[in-house]
Amino acid sequence: MSQKIVEYFQGKKVLLLGFGREGKATFNYLRKYYPEMTITVADKRQFSPPDENTRIICGENYLDCINDFDVVMQSPGISLRDVEISESTEITGEMDLFLRFADCFKIGITGTKGKTTTTSLIYNIIVTHNYEKATGRKCFLLGNIGIPVFECLDEIDEDSIAVIEMSCHQLEFSKASPNISVITNVYPEHLDHYNGFEGYVNAKLNIVKYQTGEDYFIYNADQGLESFTDVGKLRGRPVPVSINDDKTDAFLASLDGINKHLKGDNAKQDIFFAVAAAKLVGAQERYIELALEEFGGIEHRLEEVGTWEGITFYNDSIATIPHTVVCNVKALGNVSSLIFGGMDRGIDYTELNEFLGSGVVGTLIGLPETGHMIIDALIKGGYKGKTFKVDTMDEAVEIAYKETKKGRSCLFSPAASSYNRYKNFEEKGNHFKSLCKYFGEKN
Fold first, then answer.
1. Under 8 Å CB-to-CB from 222, ≥6 apart: which residues?
2. pLDDT, tens digit, for every residue of 153-184?
3. β-pairing, 90-92 with 71-74?
4. Which residues contact 269 (CB under 8 A, 6 or more apart)?
5. Tens digits of residue pLDDT in 200-214
6. pLDDT at 1 exceeding the cut of 60
7. 3-class SS of residue 144
8. From start to end of 233-334, where are the E strands?
């Protein structure tokens, strides 16, 4: 238990903004230590109060109540960009309070892409090292990867290591930074939430903004932090990581091709980030290698679904920006058909258009909205390859079976968010996988 977090809520009027998994974790934590506290929960959707000491505010205007409270625990993803906040109201969240008050060593990972893989690799390496060395030091995998930080608070002590995936939404109101911070990369994303790229970048940078001279920040040297911030103002010790580090580091060079689930340059750089972070906490190379060899991959991230009718299907539904799609087509190297498209968020698709326009993929299957837009732009530019604009995932997979060359691959990599048709990228990826199997076994 972190006594400081318990004391933080003492005597305060508390609002939980959003009642998803993190909101419920916060509620359960508060109720454990404050059984009689009146807790208010505000959410757009309707739900029943968990107990008699809970007040609920629901509906379209649920954000109007914010300034009536001392502390607002914001759930990630709820945008406050157009809401005026009173000086007497503190906007915070589980991640902020965990970083400020939890008694453990913290490794935080953020970035537009690669953060889940990097987080998982760091955790696996540390756990493997601790097990093999019998250190007895507990390690926790937390955050945006699916486990709210408050769910494990009572198990964590000062000797624990918390490896935490941090989204921009979780970092948006943070006032503390981890002991080791990793920024994998930054590309335009969530622009609708932050009113532009600058707001998105500033949220990400909270992972390093509050570090001290005893801390470290690991960053993508190929992109360079100087492209979006003044590195000289950061107090943590910089650790640059490059995709080319294996040319000067024999150990990194020895990791090439170590795991079939870690394909391409993006995965290679994720490995290098993980190695850098793990070494800072004392992980030895033989245990790093063992952990990487045993890594089982991550669902929805260049995930091999299966092979039917001589076609291997890959699910890459987490790829919500164009750059990732380009990298993963290159990583597989044998993509015959590409299924892509999703909600239009105003992202620049020039890089993807130029890449696909070169004819690197034989068959392009576009889903609404951006898939149709990209195909229209390609055709307008004189593209002569096979293109199909479809309305549903069912149509897309059925066409993929007909058009993909035998012995090659079909990649689903949307380059857009899923919210125009699906709840999230997991739902969209699962639908794709189920259809691959359905049509494969049907035929």
1. 242, 243, 244, 269
2. 989 999 999 999 999 999 999 999 999 999 99
3. parallel
4. 114, 184, 220, 222, 241, 242, 243
5. 888 899 999 999 999
6. no
7. coil
8. 237-241, 303-308, 311-315
Which residue carries 């404050």 as its tokens? 34
- Which of 374, 305, 366, 311 minimizes the C-alpha distance to 338? 366
Q: In the structure, what pLDDT confidence band is assigned to residue 191 with cuts at 50, 70 and 90?
A: low
CB 162 within 8 A of CB 104: yes
Question: What domains does the chain contain, in order, with CATH numbers?
Answer: 3-92 (3.40.50.720), 96-294 (3.40.1190.10), 303-442 (3.90.190.20)
User: Tokens 């020895």 correspond to what residue?
Assistant: 254
C-alpha span between 109 and 211 (Å, rounded): 14
Give the single-character DSSP code of 423. S
Q: Residue for token digits 């994998």? A: 184
Query: CB-based contacts of 342: which residues, under 8 Å, 6+ apart?
Result: 320, 367, 368, 369, 370, 371, 414, 415, 416, 417, 418, 419, 420, 421, 428
Residue 130 vs residues 134, 137, 239, 270, 281: alpha-carbon distances, Å: 6, 7, 23, 21, 11
* Prior bond of 369 cis (ω within 30°): yes
C-alpha torsion 419→394→435→114, nearest 10: -30
Which pLDDT belongs to residue 131? Answer: 80
Instruction: State the Cα–Cα distance between residues 440 and 443, nearest whole angstrom.
Output: 6
pTM for the whole structure: 0.87
For the chain, what is the radius of gyration of the CA atoms? 23
Torsion angles phi and psi, residue 90, rounded to 5: -100, 125
Block residue for tokens 């994303």: 189
Q: What is the rounded distance in angstroms from the CA atom of residue 59 to the CA atom of residue 30?
A: 24
CA angle 424, 425, 428 (to 5 degrees): 95
| SS3 call for 90 | strand
Task: Please compute the mean of the pLDDT values over residues 349-371 and round it to a whole number.
Answer: 96
Q: In what order do the strands lie in the sheet with 161-165?
A: 139-143, 161-165, 105-110, 180-183, 216-220, 237-241
How many beta carbons lie within 10 A of that of residue 65, not counting itself? 15
